[in-house]
Design a protein that fits this description.
alpha/beta, GTPase_ArgK (chains A, B), Rossmann fold, transferase (chains A, B), 332 residues, Single alpha-helices involved in coiled-coils or other helix-helix interfaces, P-loop_NTPase (chains A, B), homodimer, kinase (chains A, B)
């Protein structure tokens, strides 16, 4: 049941024309783990990358229940009204324990889904985080080349996916809730250090006062952290996806951030180091996928895995044996 | 200034005799990134592993300021009094942003450091998490072979190191504080799902009531999570490292857990899948270290990294070129 592929030229010209169907097929292509697809995808990316890079890349994270989908729906609407085309990419965490609800959430972004100026795409969960983030990054570049001026990368996870997303965006936003749930959805120091802004969501109705109180508390807490290397102090905002309050302020804050970072040089230096990290991630991904797809390695693993499981074979000695076989070191 | 190495036999017999000096040198050996040291370390591990596996492995995590060091000092004292030998290994997170204070903390465990029945060892921060956790795991096995019956693996991080540590222990304990700091040191769903117990620390003096209230709140919150596959519901305890209150109850809880998991088979099946994961981690580590230590790869990277940085060369195409060179695929 292998689906027909387009030619490199067809993918590239379709993406550059903003053809949503071709864009979707191109993202499917880069997500494929088949070696032949990877080679094709790389040729497509080679030609697409010179046309990428012109969007504002925003990471959005928060625990389940914080209202990411409704926030993205309402916040996205403001960007569409301001004339931007918006792409939303969702990174499913590779954690096997916490099953993500991202795919389910997507159906709830009804308005954005129906709008021709928006494009919504979940990324599949992968066995390695490097693989997931590499593919999300390529999907992001494809969306940029297709003319989307703002990209949201949505993540829900246990830390790993946030770190990966932080490594591919310009601005990282953490959604929070005020009130009773604080203990369960609280923020860790490391997450705060990654964030450029906290937004207290669901600040409407009876919840407005609690949200403003939380805003003050978090703002005070953030004062305890040192300034970031780019000179930006993370801001705390309140917003409501229901009433729309605060959403324009969030967008103003992001624009202010981008302006400052462009003028002090951080915007470009950040993207430059992201490109280098991307290379290292891609190397890791290729090394592992080549390794595990190698027929000889597959055979060795299937014949001896049980011995590793029950402890009869040493996990490290067997690992080294496999790697030696793979890179064909015949002697020492 | 290369330090003299011992022979494989000297390492092995020293470790098995419980010689602390040799144990320390063996851990230093497994932590070395030199290829020759790695080969030597592997031979040592091969002989040591059959003598390992008999300890109770406990992961302890919590944000900075939660009192991990004083908890470990007081809790460790209870284990020593109960006749156990205790090793404490600290995993420094590989995050470059949040500089860990683990090494600083170690000097604060004055009592444990001075006790011959205890052994304290920080692990160095590594560039890859796989590398760090692989070496911590080997250090753990060395300590077991040296006769330590309980191993603490202490971690402070932003999620990544917790996941790695969860993958090598039998029991995972999250330290928390009650009260004003909840927003900052709160727990994420993914972390709770990894934990076998929450312990509200610093439950002494004016703080006792708040700790007990937090205990009730967290216990209620944990009811919302489904039971784990092993049938264990995470417990919430309070303790004080200062007064010693609650520490014996924590130890009783861990013993109860170990007994249950041994009788329902989870203890062994968990360790079996940990061994398989360990093999995969080690493969990843070896692939990357062999790759980046390869002279040809080093040369190619140094000659073209600037082009990747400034965007003149494609990060993914250059990554693939490097990997192709490394595994010597001459044609397609």
């Amino acid at each position: 049941m292998k689906r027909n592929r387009l030619s490199v030229d067809q993918y590239v010209s379709g993406v550059l024309k903003g053809d949503r169907m071709v864009l979707s097929r191109a993202i499917t292509l880069v997500e494929s783990t088949l070696e032949s697809d990877q080679l094709l995808a790389e040729k497509v990316m080679e030609q697409v990358i010179p046309h990428s890079g012109k969007s504002i890349r925003i990471g959005i994270t928060g625990v389940p229940g914080v209202g990411k989908s409704t926030f993205i729906e309402s916040f996205g609407d403001i960007l569409l009204e301001a004339g931007y085309k918006l792409a939303v990419l969702a990174v499913d965490p590779s954690s096997q324990r916490s099953g993500g609800s991202i795919l389910g959430d997507k159906t709830r972004m009804e308005k954005l889904s129906a709008d021709k100026r928006a494009y919504i795409r979940p990324s599949p969960a992968g066995s390695t985080l490097g693989g997931v983030s590499a593919k999300t990054r390529e999907a992001m570049l494809l969306c940029e080349a297709a003319g989307f001026g703002v990209i949201f990368i949505e993540t829900v996870g246990v830390g790993q996916s946030e770190i990966a997303v932080r490594g591919m965006v310009d601005f990282f936003l953490l959604l929070m809730l005020a009130g009773a749930g604080d203990e369960l959805q609280g923020i860790k120091k490391g997450i705060i250090e990654m964030c450029d802004a906290l937004v207290i969501n669901k600040a409407d109705g009876d919840n407005v006062e609690a949200a403003k109180r939380a805003q003050r508390e978090y703002a005070n807490a953030l004062h305890l952290f040192p300034a970031k290397e780019n000179g930006w102090y993370p801001k705390v905002k309140v917003s409501s996806a229901v009433t729309g309050d605060g959403l324009k302020e969030v967008w103003q804050m992001i624009q202010e951030y981008i302006e400052k970072m462009m003028s002090n040089g951080f915007f470009e230096s950040n993207r430059a180091s992201q490109r280098v990290n991307w290379m290292h991630e891609h190397i890791r991904y290729l090394l592992e996928s080549r390794f595990y797809q190698n027929p000889k390695i597959k055979e060795l693993i299937s014949s001896s895995l049980e011995d590793v499981r029950n402890g009869n074979a040493s996990a490290i000695a067997f690992g080294r044996l496999l790697v030696d076989n793979f890179i064909q070191i015949k002697e020492r």
